[in-house]
Amino acid sequence: YDGHSDLHVGITDSKGVVYHYDQEGVHRAGSGWEQCISVPLVQPDMAELLLQWDQLLEEFSLEEAWLPHRYEEQQHNCFTFALAFVNRVRRGRGWEPLSKAQFSERFLLPHTRAASRYLTLLQELAHSDVYIVPLPQEQQ
């Protein structure tokens, strides 16, 4: 990622299949997201939610709101899809919905900042006379 193009957002089920929305509607992808930033949304102590997650995501993805003709690049897009699903889950737990700004600040920005720092370091090292070797097993 070069930092100059839009990012695409999706939500995974428990098996790692990514549900994402674009001008062609909702897609389910088992591959093609290997270069993504993974943002955990569910706490490990929410076992009952994890058991329902796949069903909630599948039902949500089939709603009319996510038909291809409803897609609008600026106002009804992949980010809208992800945020709407998160807010559906939050409402089901009795929590307040998040605004776009709150969702970005709380979930996305910390992870994209860390990835950006990592990529910057990686690019710097790639253009220097540094050789990186893995630590021996006993030092890890």
UniProtKB/TrEMBL annotation:
Coiled-coil region(s): none
A Pfam family: DUF4796_C
Record-linked InterPro entries: MKRN2OS-like, MKRN2OS-like_C
Taxonomic superkingdom: Eukaryota
Residues in MKRN2 opposite strand protein-like C-terminal domain copies: 1-125
Entry protein name: MKROS protein
Organism from which the protein derives: Orthonyx spaldingii (Chowchilla)
